[in-house]
Amino acid sequence: MKVKIWANLGAKNLDRTEEFYTKLGFKRNGQKNDELVSFLFGEDDFIIHFFKEDSLKKGMKGELSDLSKGNEVIFTISAETDAEVNDWAVKVKAAGGDVFSPPEAFQSMYGCAFADPDGHKFNILRWK
């Protein structure tokens, strides 16, 4: 059996979400419509759909997490060099994201972490 997995996240403003991920260089997955904008992440084209929050709540038949009070998940993006991690932090800030953990060395890694304008979290990590 061949299995494809993707993520569905909520977005308050699809135009803002589209602009943010486009500025970071991610490729759109299909066309944006009134309900969602979708992007491809990584070499295997992991898909993240960003749905208008009301649409996602309806589909999930429940409430979404309040990301100002907690976390849902953190996605990790790999980097090959420390300079690449640093570049990500600069690009995220310029695109309107929040680098809540600036680039630093820890354990056997070098990385940073950021939240997109809706609060969805990502790590950028280079393993040493």
UniProtKB/TrEMBL annotation:
Taking every annotated instance into account, which residue ranges of this chain make up the domain Glyoxalase/fosfomycin resistance/dioxygenase? Answer: 8-123
Instruction: Identify the Gene3D superfamilies for this entry.
Output: 2,3-Dihydroxybiphenyl 1,2-Dioxygenase, domain 1
Where does the source fall among the domains of life? Bacteria
What name does UniProt use for this protein? Answer: Glyoxalase/fosfomycin resistance/dioxygenase domain-containing protein
Chain segments annotated as coiled-coil in the UniProt record: none
